[in-house]
Write a structure and sequence with these properties.
alpha+beta; Methylamine Dehydrogenase, Chain H; 11 helices; 28% strand; disordered N terminus
């Protein structure tokens, strides 16, 4: 079988039509980088990603390898190690010409690592940024070979899950696909328990965003995005915020303008929203072959795709074709479109978006060898194969051409129409709190009761107080434990009277600070990531990963508890009602000792049981047996909002325990944080997928505005995870973990 021109394949030094690129320079090892990993001596930093850093290593004999060290946050998670071991074992089974083999790994090391063959070429991301988009023939050759790599990966029962330009390396021997399957290890562990997906939003398939079953077809969707990027340097669903990109992936057709027609057809086929309508890797290779043959020369041909009546474009009906070795078939076809003069239109036709019974006409160059019909793949291999043939209008033979195949795979709708970033108004920040150089970004934020100060905490162990009006840091002090060890701080909250700050440490401690004197008052040895003060500041509720909620009197200088509640599963969110009568605890969906899934519970704190065994049981258990990631009371204490990893926010009547409604759109994925506005008319939400802050009208439960981060790099815009309103209702603050800053917005109402 003929293939796209081998000489057109881009690589690290030379390419077709003067296209060339070189690998970026290596970075020297820093003070925090290790010198060795297992038997490998580390020489330089090749890059970093969401799961770890990649180093250039040397074997004892001097051969080069690429060594990936897993971040410590993953290394400490037992579930991750188990999953990581399974994925590495699967990756070792992958064998293919266009994949990079795993050669070694140590999954029991303090920092697990794996070593692969070293590929010195640049990534597709870097190459296009340096030298511009690939010529059409080179792009087709690249796509075919990446599809062949996917064949090898899928044959080993592995799904890549994070195929993107930076995971495709260009070499003299063709592209090499890296990092296949490893991302799944993070997807299924406590590290990403809030529902964050490890893929890159611009290349995520709709079913992956929605949390549905992910199959090999998800990699094909990503390949479609890669194809468009290779040929244009742009993204098929545009840029801007992750919210906007996710919305367009789910709700709109790709904008493939600017992509050369042969590449556009292949990309459109791969980017079908329905995974069943996407081609297989073998079919992608065939699409590229046909497109390359069409570009080799020949006479113009107007081709007509004719899906059978009553079938979808993905299921071809019978067609007429004749040629050597091809059996005769029958077809019922309508006439091709004619211009006003009654003749077929000349010149390249604009891409159509066919419906189930539409005809798609194209003009293109026919293959150089007339009288032959390339045989399509087995039509029974998959719904949406290459079965439709084409009628050659004005010629003696029928040809199959890739440009007609867009009628099979291209989803309905007009891909050329302008794409909106979001279905509602968007707003830029009115200010930014910039952290000092080399300081860790914010993990937790909270306004003081007078709205004049914002407290932030982060991975560097610093508690910073900011003058909100002047956007300047007012004070900074270090959160350490009783032994003087400094740890990152995950959460911070002001007491309603403004006198205290409570901070949560990963060591299982909670710090209490005197705000005026900037000094610690107490270390509570029952800590967690969830903290909430009572409205009178006389109680502090602490949720723990051991399944308990503890109530302390902040005025006491001991670990003595006032009461505790047995939540029976990890507490991931905590809220104190503004009337001081109820504590809400939300957690994961692990099975409790009582045999029930106690994910969200309401506890009566109006009359506390001081007995050490804790309360006999919650006042109410909300009927939602699944993991919760965030919770907040309305200002009138009548409604509890609970966020979930699937993007849903449920509203509950606190008095009756019945549901009142739901906030839901498909591009709100994995709720990371939520909060009511001081007047109770708005709910602000963030997502673990990244992006800005989404504002919802409580009355009609519809989104009304998106607060964007205003900062963009090659991976997209910022990733705000924590959000809070100022008590006076004038400002909204969001902690952006991506670039280590706090964004401030004015409520656009």
């Amino acid at each position: 079988m003929s293939r796209p021109d081998e000489s057109a394949v881009p690589h690290g030094r030379t390419g077709d039509a003067g296209w060339s690129a070189v690998a970026p320079p290596h970075l020297p090892l820093g003070a925090a980088d290790p010198a060795v990993a297992g038997p490998y001596r580390l020489e330089a930093v090749l890059g970093a990603g969401g799961m770890g850093r990649v180093y250039l290593g040397r074997t004892p004999a001097g051969s080069a390898v690429a060594v990936k060290l897993v971040h410590r946050e993953y290394a400490g998670d037992a579930a991750f190690r188990q999953r990581f071991a399974q994925e590495v074992a699967a990756a070792r089974r992958v064998q293919g010409l266009y994949t990079v083999p795993v050669v070694d790994a140590d999954l029991q090391a303090d920092e697990p690592w794996l070593a692969t063959a070293y590929v010195p070429g640049p990534s597709l991301q870097h190459a296009v940024a340096e030298s511009g988009p690939l010529p059409a023939d080179a792009a087709l050759a690249l796509i075919a070979r990446v599809a062949e790599a996917l064949q090898s990966i899928h044959a080993a029962d592995v799904i890549h899950r994070d195929l993107k330009p930076s995971n495709i390396l260009l070499t003299d021997d063709g592209p090499k696909v890296i990092d296949f399957g490893i991302a799944r290890a993070a997807d299924l562990t406590a590290v990403t328990a809030t529902g964050v997906r490890t893929g890159t939003p611009a290349y995520m398939a709709p079913e992956y965003i929605r949390g549905q079953t992910v199959t090999e077809a998800g990699d094909i969707f990503a390949l479609g995005g890669v194809a468009h990027f290779a040929a244009t340097g742009g993204h098929a669903f545009g840029g801007g915020t992750d919210h906007g990109v996710v919305y367009r992936i789910l709700e709109q057709e790709p904008d493939l303008d600017g992509s050369p027609e042969p590449v556009r057809a292949v990309a459109a086929a791969c980017l079908a929203k329905d995974p069943e309508r996407r081609p297989t890797p073998a079919e992608v290779i065939e699409l590229c072959r046909l497109a390359a043959a069409a570009g080799a020369g020949g006479h113009p041909a107007t081709v007509l795709a004719v899906p059978a009546p009553g079938t979808s474009p993905g299921v071809a009906g019978p067609a007429v074709a004749s040629g050597p070795g091809d059996a005769e078939r029958t077809v019922s076809a309508r006439p091709t479109a004619l211009d006003e003069a009654g003749t077929p239109p000349a010149g390249p036709a604009a891409p159509a978006a066919p419906g189930p019974h539409d005809l798609a006409t194209r003009t293109a160059a026919a293959p150089a060898a007339p009288g032959t019909v390339p045989r399509p793949p087995d039509p029974d291999a998959r719904t949406g194969t290459l079965a439709p043939l084409a009628l050659l209008i004005g010629g003696a033979v029928a040809v199959v051409l890739v440009l007609v195949l867009i009628a099979v795979f291209l989803p309905s709708g007009d891909p050329g129409k302008p794409q909106a970033d979001s279905p509602y108004d968007t707003y830029e920040p009115t200010g930014t709190l910039a952290f000092p150089a080399r300081a860790a970004g914010p993990a937790g934020i909270d306004f003081s009761p007078d709205s004049e100060t914002l407290a932030t905490v982060g991975d560097d162990g610093k508690i910073r107080l900011w003058d909100v009006a002047r956007r300047k840091q007012r004070a900074a002090f270090t959160q350490d434990d009783e032994a003087g060890n400094v740890f990152g701080v995950g959460t911070v909250t002001y007491s309603p009277d403004g006198k205290l700050l409570a901070t949560g440490l990963p060591t299982g401690q909670t710090g209490l600070w005197d705000v005026a004197k900037r000094r610690p008052l107490n270390y509570l040895h029952m800590g967690g990531e969830s903290l909430a003060f009572s409205p009178d500041s006389k109680l502090l509720a602490i949720g723990s990963r051991t399944g308990s909620v503890y109530l302390f009197d902040p005025a006491e200088r001991s670990d003595d508890i006032v009461a505790y509640f047995d939540h029976r599963s990890d507490v991931t969110a905590l809220a104190f009602s503004p009337d001081g009568r109820t504590v809400a605890s939300a957690g994961d969906d692990s099975e409790s000792n009582s045999g029930r899934n106690d994910t969200t519970q309401l506890w009566n704190v109006a009359k506390l049981d001081p007995q050490p065994h804790g309360q006999d049981g919650p006042r109410k258990i909300l009927d939602q047996p699944r993991e919760a990631t965030a919770a907040a009371f309305s200002p009138d204490s009548r409604t509890l909002a609970v966020g979930h990893p699937d993007g849903e926010v449920w509203l509950w009547d606190v008095t009756t325990g019945r549901e009142k409604g739901m906030l839901r759109n498909d591009y709100l994925t994995a709720v990371a944080d939520l909060e009511f506005s001081p007047d109770g008319k708005t709910i602000a939400t963030t997502t673990a997928l990244g992006g800005g802050v989404l504002l919802w009208n409580v009355a009609d439960r519809m989104p009304r505005a998106l607060l964007e981060t205003g900062e963009e790099d090659e991976e997209g815009k910022g990733a705000v995870e924590e959000v809070t309103f100022s008590p006076d209702g004038k400002l909204i603050a969001g902690a952006d973990r991506k670039d280590g800053a706090v964004r401030l917005w004015r409520d656009p109402r």
